[in-house]
Amino acid sequence: MKIQTFVRSPDWLDSAGTRIRYRRLQPEFLRLGCSLAIDSLSGIREGLKLNADVYLFSKCQDAGALMLADMLREDGALVGFDLFDDYISGESSATFGQRDFQRSLRGKVDFLLCSTERMCAVAKSMDPTIPAHVLNDPLAPVTRERLVQLIERKADQVRRTGRIDVLWFGNGNNPFFPVGISDLVAFGEALRPLQGAGLNVHLKVLTNADALDVDGLRRLRNLPYTLKTEEWSAEAERVSLDQATLAFLPVNYQSFSIAKSLNRAVTALTHGTQILAAGYPLYAALDAFVYDNAAEFVADLQAGSLKLRRSTLDGLDSYLASLADPAREAARFVTFLAALPIGAAKVPVEQRPVRAIVHGAASTPAIHNLGRTMGWLSLGSPLTRQTLPFDAQIGFFDGAATPELRLMRTAFARLTEKWRSRVVALPKVDYGEYSHALALPDTQTGRFLSSLTPQMLANRSGRMILCEAVMAATERVFGDIFGDMLMMRSEMEMPLPGMARLLAANS
Amino acid sequence: VLSRLVDKVRSQFAERQRYAARQNAARALISQSKLFDAQWYVERYPDVAAMGLDPLEHFLRHGAAEGRNPSDRFDLSSYLKRNPDVARSGINPLLHYLEHGRDEGRSIRAVSNTRGDEDFDLKAGPQRKKIRAEAPRVDPYPSDFTSVWRARPVAWAALLSSLNPNKPRPIIVESDRNGVAVNWLAGFARTEQTESPERARVHLFRAMRRVSRLTSGEPAVESGDQETTGRQNAYRLLTAYGLGFEAIADGWFAGSAQLMLRVRHPGAAGLQLRAFQHTSTGDVECCAEADIVDGEIQLISLPLNHELYPVLLTWQASDGILTASALLPFPSLFRGGLHHSELAASEILSGERDVLGDYMTSLTLQTYCWPKPDDGFAIKRIAVDLRGANGSETIFSAGAITALATQFGIELEPRWSGDEDALQQLQGQLRAKFRGDRTTDATKTGRTLILPADGFPSLSCLAARSGEQQLGVSTFCVVDTGTRQPKALVCHPTTSTYLSKLHHPALPLPYPIVEADASAPSTARSRHFGAPIMIRFRDAKVWKIDALLPLSPDTHTPSLAVKRSLANDQKPRLTVIIDRPAGDDQISLCLTALAQQTIADDLEILLVGDENVPRTAAEVFGDKRIVLCSALGASRAERLNRAASSVTSDYLLFLDATVSLSDPRTLALLLDMASQPQVASASCALIREDDADGSASVECAGYLEQWQTDVTGPELLVQQTDVAQIFPASTYSVVANDMRLCLMPLAVWRALGGFNAEDFPDSGFDLDLGLRARVACFEHYCTTLTRAAIAKRMSVATTLDQPPPPAVPKGLREQLSEQVLRIRRLR
Fold first, then answer.
1. Is A99 on the interface with B (CB under 8 A)?
2. Measured distance CA(B660)–CA(A186) in Å, rounded
3. What is the pLDDT of residue A9?
4. pLDDT value at position B410?
5. ipTM of the modeled complex
6. Residue B224 reports pLDDT greater than 50
7. Taking CA atoms, what residue in A is nearest to B258?
8. What is the reported pLDDT for B293?
């Protein structure tokens, strides 16, 4: 079995998710006679062959990925999306874009991959018909000798010097939810018993640089401990975990936080670092090795019976084997995939539709490029603000007050016979410019589009009011001139994707 | 006794108010004059920086009298030499120049660069020189008028090091667990035969440790006589000796558990300063010790157990004699503390400044010295509404929960009806048990405060014993979570059940709610605008919503009751009156948005002042539902009066063509609001969004009244307040609504007689109409739960009645203003 994982761009090839979730599994898949490739979607444009049996989309939440997924299923492959974090719980948070995308997966994927049981339940609540599998984050290999050395050195150092190095590491912020540094500060008082016991608490915050902005630093200043901040990197995390005696892992109670994986705790334990958790008991499964009370930690430290010590490592091994063993996770995943019906959505070649992406107010060049590579039409609408060489676009050209329909040479060839004769060639065409123009049809749809002005769409409020009507009219016109097509909208400006549903609910 | 105390306090308040007003005026005048340069001042006089005082404050209080120049642009001594009458008067020379001198043509001189005042010498001597030589470079402490407050631990750290404080160490110095009190201050023991201020504060401090009695097995509630005696004794000691605040020069939090204090030196050198604090278990700990070396003012850093427990400072001589003491019963009132915004609000309400000591005294009297009348006024329990909670709010902190119970006798309970796992866990958090879970302070009767998850009870709320305390049951402070910086004082007097439903389902409750105890006497009094009942910690992330669409597309709209309010279950008919169509673009968009409304089928459009029906309008609504009302030549008010008089629908919607109802649910919600009894109008926030940078600003969200306190006393102004910052997605009562988007019942419109076209023909008419409706006992509701976009800014001059209509007497307007939402800025 060949498994191809896609991430959204080359930057994501080195992300924590890719590193922890996929790279650690690669050797295990090989042992099972399978292969796991990890590439960015842009790799397709550079010649990546699409010949896998299973495709897994990781953090790819746009129309390009959705269209590609649909196309790959049409070709008989199994397609799944890895959901990672819970951006989809509830009905009223600001993440309705993510919820909207999740809904759009209905009927377009064979399976969903989740990192926790809770996330799996959340996914099921959105659509119980899609099979979902829990792939626990696998742990990195660790040697027993080194672990023992680390554990004993750290405990000894605290007893000798009275100084305790506490580490908080991870993502310090999130565009939608108060997490990271906000949690650290809110639950920071959980470390106070360490001070009360006379320990000198040195707290190190290892996080992304943009979380250490004015607001983040102001919050951190409220913590009554000696504080050091450092920008996160894989190497800095490794070094810091090797140095820290205690990892502080506070978790708040919102849906997003409680669906997180146990990864941070597992990573800390494999570096011989004791764990103090606070807030929501996310790490309850590791209860035997995680403190939820600093006073208990102090007592154990003084008694020489810390939860993570030489004599408890056997227990840790078996715990981790049940929770995060890469071999076990790989085998479970392969078994899950093998049970799925292969080629359920396969379509004979002659019946496969022409595909087109219709770009809304905010789309990306990456989606356009993917479409061009895959042979889909890339079509611009009057809402589109990007200037890209679309195959065709209805838009306001050269400062005109009314919209026109213009085409590239490539699209001219795909026009239906009826419309080809009505096309007017544009003079002096350079590469990448539209070569032909076509009058908008004298239908109600065409008249509606002709009545639009740039001012009506200049503001978001105008786009909110008109987006559904404009996109529907655009699709009708393109459907008319290019013939039957499978069109998918690419819209990343919020809340435009949701407006259609809001208006549809009214009607 | 109480009435004497009240008279005394009132008299002091009045005097302080006058003094504070003078000081405020002086500060404002000087800070705006550019003749005072804070940076220059501290650079020139580093001893000011070393003392850590606000430079402007220093100049006003001491600097001018000491002959210090306020900036290099004003030579003070030169001014006095040239104007001996000023020198004789003793007036601050700079203030004299600004108030009188410049109008009288008196000249000023810049400070000479060659002479300067390098030889300035307040009290010449080696010590002063040393200070100047060693004073670290710190930024000037910002004036209240030039910048907002911020804690500056970095700058202070340099100063702190010179004071040689011992390393803080937790020492349990006393425990009452075995019922035997231990004399824990040697100095106190030696002077115990003689009552003194120092001893009095130690007594008071010990009296505050009620929880310790409980752990020793004593009854939770003292018997009547014991309690009365204890309270009388505490009252006598406090009124006779005070808290000893004269020893505190300044204080602020550098972090939530690090109290920085500048304390005055009480006498000879060689003293030892100790700070003690209560703990949650009833013990007393020494949280810091410092050897006082020298100097008039010392900076000390106190690592506190929790900012809600009292702190005692003692100064002991080497022979153990207790020479001074100071008691801080409520440390959280200091800047950067949990309750500092409450103090800021108190300053606004009383018109005073620097009232920390008085405010603490007042709270101490209520909490520890006053009897507890069973008038049902006190807050008996606090229910935390878990909507929008994520567990990182202050109210869920274990330390805070314990302190509330042990120090104030208040237990928390969850108020929530959901099935989310995580919130069930949070419920358990609130109900956490601890030793001594009841204290003598628990009241037998009282009310329940329903607190939003991001709220925290104010000290006034916790201390208030009777209605005399002027606790504002709907008043609260808004504070920035990250910086703890006070932002606003909010009073929302209309807290009806209906309005409470109209808010965002994922955000915390928009305001606190006080529920009366069924067993409480009916005489329990409530005030709306008084001392705040809670502090709200506003986290921008939690309150994050889309500026134009607060309710996400997949959120159910709050249940609408409008259909039930009409007879025969008929749908209400609504006529939209659009004045002066602003061109085809705007009117097309406006009409398209109307056509997409959930109640579009029930709309009729009346276009005023235009001979032609725009092409798109006809296409959107069809000819039958669009009526033209030609009123060329008439004033705006007349045009709309004429249009409205022809309407036969149930409701009128006045709509400007520049307003787009981008949320299809807006009109249904407004109709729902307008269909409530005694409602004159309903509107929503008007948002102007800049597409270039994505910023959005609130053009109007109903008109609110704003009190402005200055030397001449409170003035009633009407302003378009950015209320959406405080109430991002909820509904409230306003003075009037903006007629660019205003839905009114036709019957109300007719009863009020329409717009006053005679007095306000072309300019604004909305405020006049709004106030007339209010005089007739109607409400105006506005909501930020849904919002409309407005294409262009309309100047206040052309929209508001200027000056406000004289038809409503000032006294009556002030009364009316107490019935609507009020927001006052805190700093």
1. yes
2. 41
3. 86
4. 84
5. 0.89
6. yes
7. A224
8. 64
> Which region among A302-306, B318-322, B755-759 has the lowest average model confidence (pLDDT)?
B318-322
Cβ contact, residue pair A498, B554, below 8 Å: yes
Share of chain B above pLDDT 90, in %: 16
Amino acid in position A478:
F
Enter the tokens of residue A176: 């939608």
Q: Test B422 with A96 for CB contact under 8 angstroms.
A: no
Q: Which of these, A242, A236, A286, A280, lies nearest to A263 by C-alpha position?
A: A286
Alpha carbon distance B73, B556 (integer Å)? 63
Inter-chain residue contact B541 with A176, CB threshold 8 Å:
yes
Residue B549 near chain A (CB below 8 Å): yes
Q: Do B553 and A254 touch (CB under 8 A)?
A: no
Helices and strands (H and E) in chain B: how many:
27, 29
Residues 6+ apart with CB under 8 A from B673: B502, B679, B682, B731, B743, B781, B783
Interface size, chain A vs chain B, as Cβ–Cβ contacts under 8 Å:
167
How many other CB atoms are there within 10 angstroms of residue A297's CB atom?
24
Closest in B256, B555, B691 to A92, CB measured: B555
Tell whether the model's pLDDT for residue B190 goes beyond 70: no
Q: Is the pLDDT of residue A485 over 50?
A: yes
Nearest CA in chain B to A452: B585
Quote the pTM value. Answer: 0.81
DSSP category for residue B472: B
Summarised one tens digit per residue, pLDDT across range B598-657 is 888 888 998 887 666 666 666 777 766 777 777 666 788 888 888 899 898 999 999 988
Phi, psi dihedral angles at B195 (to 5 degrees)? -75, 135
Q: Tell whether A460 lies on the interface with B, counting CB pairs under 8 A.
A: yes
Residues 6+ apart with CB under 8 A from A430: none
Rg (CA), chain A: 27
Rg (CA), chain B: 31
Token pair, residue B221, equals 């509630």
A182 and B CB contact within 8 Å: yes
More confident residue, B127 or A336: A336
- Quote the CA–CA distance of B267 and B273 in Å, as a whole number: 12
- Encoding tokens for residue A274? 């004791």
Residue count (chain B)? 827
Q: What is the pLDDT of residues A25-40, one digit of tens each?
A: 999 999 999 999 999 9
Strand partners of residue A38: A5
- Do the chains contact at A192 and B257, CB–CB below 8 Å? yes
Residue B131 clears pLDDT 50, i.e. is over it? no
- Residue B380 pLDDT: 82
Q: In angstroms, what separates the C-alpha of B223 from chain A's closest C-alpha?
A: 36
Separation between Cα atoms, residue B304 and residue B287, nearest integer Å = 6
**A145 CB neighbour count, 10 Å cutoff:** 8
User: pLDDT (tens digit, 9 = 90+) per residue, B786-813?
Assistant: 999 998 765 544 455 554 555 566 677 6
φ and ψ of B228, to 5 deg: -60, -45
Any B CB within 8 A of A101 CB: no
Q: Is some CB atom of chain B closer than 8 A to the CB atom of A314?
A: no
Under an 8 A CB cutoff, do B585 and A455 touch?
Answer: yes
Residue B603: phi and psi, rounded to 5, are: -100, 145
* Token representation of residue A79: 């397609």
Please identify among residues 369-428 of chain B the ones whose CB lies closer than 8 Å to any CB of chain A.
389-394, 397-399, 420-423, 425-426
Residues 789 to 808 of B: which have CB under 8 A from any A CB? 789, 791
Q: What is the pLDDT of residue A93?
A: 74
φ, ψ of residue A95 to 5 degrees: the values are: -95, 40
Q: Specify the residue for token string 């926030």.
A: B685
**Does B287 contact A at CB distance below 8 Å?**
no
- Which segments of B118-267 are extended strands (E)? 171-174, 248-253, 258-264
* 3 state DSSP class of A486: strand
* CA-based nearest distance A439→chain B, Å: 20
